[in-house]
Amino acid sequence: MDSTKQDGASSSFDLVGGLALLVMLGLNLRPLIASISPLQGAIRADTGMSFQSVGLLTTLPFMCMGLVALMSARLAARLGEGRGVSLGLMLILFGCLIRIVNPSAATLLGTALIGGVGIAIIQTLLPGRIKRDFPGRVPLAMGIYSASLMSGGGLAAWLSPRIATQMDSWSLGVGFWFIPALIALAGWLWKVAQPRGSRSPVAANRLWRFPRAWVLALYFGIINAGYSSVIAWLPAYYQQLGWNTSNSGLLLAWMTIFQVAAALTMPMLAQRQRGIDRRGLLIVSLLAQLIGYLGLILLPGPGALIWVAVAGFGLGACFGLGLILALDHHPAPHIAGQLAAFMQGIGFMVNAMSPWVSGALRQTTGNFVAVWIMLALGAATMMALTLVFRPSQYESLGLGQA
């Protein structure tokens, strides 16, 4: 009896510790990107960067996420999870720190690449680990991971302009985030990283041969494309409408509250489902995005808090549900992890284009309405595509041959 209780306590401790570690890692995966948006006015004034150039500060990290994810199998085999995540955190730490030391346009672009690679490595390695380490609790673990990731972005959007104002330096506002990266690195090394690192036996990814892998990748890219454009341009949109820097940045923090709520509640609903049909939850999430974008177009001023909250809920739900959808496609963790990595690889490259295209639309039209129209059309189209993800077909797709 005592032994059983001890085993149960140990199992509970491992679960809590594992989830805490996911939170610690997730919090570091968006500040390098989200800290730019509320300060982009000061950055453009000080560096002479154009709207499109500032858009690259969001585009480049997402492009890195895509390219690195496509090399996931080789990355896991060469580095192992311990070394890989450690390297990722060090790159994020270095990218943030150098922004303080040398605040120039070239530095911002270079650190967007460096930090983007670090973010990408961590994001690529975590889904397979979640599938393996949390059997029977994948939606719960994915929800907590997604919520912490979005919380990091919202915290950065809220705190960065305040640090910049207090210290009279936008570079400190965008570079401060080396501190949580350092804390996470210490926690990771203490908790799980091993000096020699384990090697993954997974073969090179061949999922590009399977149409379903491409459908999932494009789907994931488009249902999440709104996030990269919103964090890049929502404060600028409201600054154009007369809001000040702090209040417009606060909108991203407000949105994050609802992203986090959705990232927790929607995967929890998925956890309680008897089967693995996620289509209803995904359609509701995309509908929320669509309503939010239409609100930003039609009634941006009076309903600002409502539209940002509704869109944020949809965006927060889609990230975690999209990863769960990929992991559902195969019971084997290494194959499901490869599929999630491939999906993120192509998907994040689609995400990467979103703020750049959005910046070009803003430059051409003189306002951001065209951006919200583009995102609304994408959400409506993906609602229709969601219907193809019937779980009864998963086994016949042949993904186990990848």
> What order do the SSEs take from the amino end to the carboxyl end, as H and E?
HHHHHHHHHHHHHHHH
Assess the beta-strand content as a share of residues: under 5%
Low-confidence stretches: 1-10, 193-204
Average of per-residue pLDDT values = 83
For the biggest sheet, the summary is: none
Which oligomerization state do the chains in this entry correspond to? single chain
What would you call the shape? globular
Number of strands: 0
**How would you classify the helix and strand content by structural class?**
mainly alpha
Rg for CA atoms: 20 Å
Query: How many helices does DSSP assign?
Result: 16
Distance between the termini: 45 Å
Structure commentary:
The chain is mainly α. It has helices at residues 2-26, 31-34, 40-47, 51-70, 72-101, 105-133, 138-167, 170-175, 178-191, 211-223, 225-240, 245-272, 279-298, 304-328, 333-365, 369-385. Helix 4 (51-70) runs parallel beside helix 6 (105-133), helix 13 runs antiparallel to helix 16 (369-385) and helix 14 runs antiparallel to helix 15 (333-365). It is globular, with a radius of gyration of 20 Å. It is built from 16 helices and no strands. The longest helix has 33 residues, at 333-365. The chain starts with a helix and ends in a 17-residue tail after the last helix. Helix content is 79%, strand content 0%.
